[in-house]
UniProtKB/TrEMBL annotation:
Record-annotated membrane-spanning stretches: 6-29, 41-60, 66-90, 102-125, 131-152, 172-193, 205-222, 234-256, 293-315
Record-level GO BP terms: transmembrane transport
Keywords from the UniProt entry: Cell membrane, Membrane, Transmembrane, Transmembrane helix, Transport
Subcellular localization(s) per the UniProt record: Cell membrane
Family: Belongs to the auxin efflux carrier (TC 2.A.69) family.
Keyword Membrane set for record: yes
One of the Pfam families matching this protein, by short name: Mem_trans
Protein name: AEC family transporter
Amino acid sequence: MDYFIIIAPKLVSFFLLIVLGFTISKLGIFPKNCLPSLSAFLIKVVLPCLTVSLLCQRGTTWVDLAGFHGIVLCQMAGYVLLAAVGLLCVKLARIQSPTSNVHVGCMVGGNYGFVVIPILMALYTPENGQQYIPICSAIDTMMVWTLGLYFFTRGIEKDGEPWYRILTKRLFNPILVSIVLILTLNSLSVTLPNPVLEVCNNVGNISYSLGLIYVGCTICFLKKGSLHCLKTLWMLVLTKLFAVPLLIYILTGPFLPETERVVLMLIAGAPSMTTSCMIANQYGLDEDYASTAVFVTTICCMVTIPLLFLASALFQ
């Protein structure tokens, strides 16, 4: 019950912002032809600014990541496990491309910033638990924008396009470039000028509200019959929000202390990231499926996160 009380206010604000996005699109304030521009703005400008802002504030370096190698390696393995289970579900449910791309991508990418961090802040002190927040944030961003982006875009390349050009386009996305750059600058003790940091802070801060408003806009424009995807989304809810996180908690028992196991469980069990909709839009994928997945998993995590804590208590 304590965990429900922690996340409930946050999820209510999520819901209200999604409703706001739905409403302004229904009223014609934000028409459908504006969504591609909003999506590009969020991915290419807002999210890189948020990455720079967070990592500069915390001063996270490559050495910091190496110092927490245990939880870092297990966290990376967790994303691989999520992707593998996503691929298995796609095969069992016979989900066709490009919806299958979105399903696996939504398995890998979770809402770390707006669900996991508030819970960790409430559960742990700065010395015992909160020190993992910037470390896991850096790994989360890197894995989502490498492994996650790969599964989102797998198989959509133009025929005959050289492999190195495909690899370059995937790796040199604005978000991944920004995180590598800032980790390197932090490692070299190079600080950005205050005016630059202030701009990054201000622009990055709108990612939370604007991202969820965007989800609401996309839900407004769902095609007729799009809710058929609810038949396969139950697999996403069951595996991403409960089965895989609990499995990660159990498997890491012999290697990691209790706090790190809980952190990894929460990261794996976070609802699908709001940027799934934007990625689907940018690459011409099934945006309806992405929007519904984000909405459904966000609502369902109010139930699954308390259940995870109850179930994990059996394996302590």
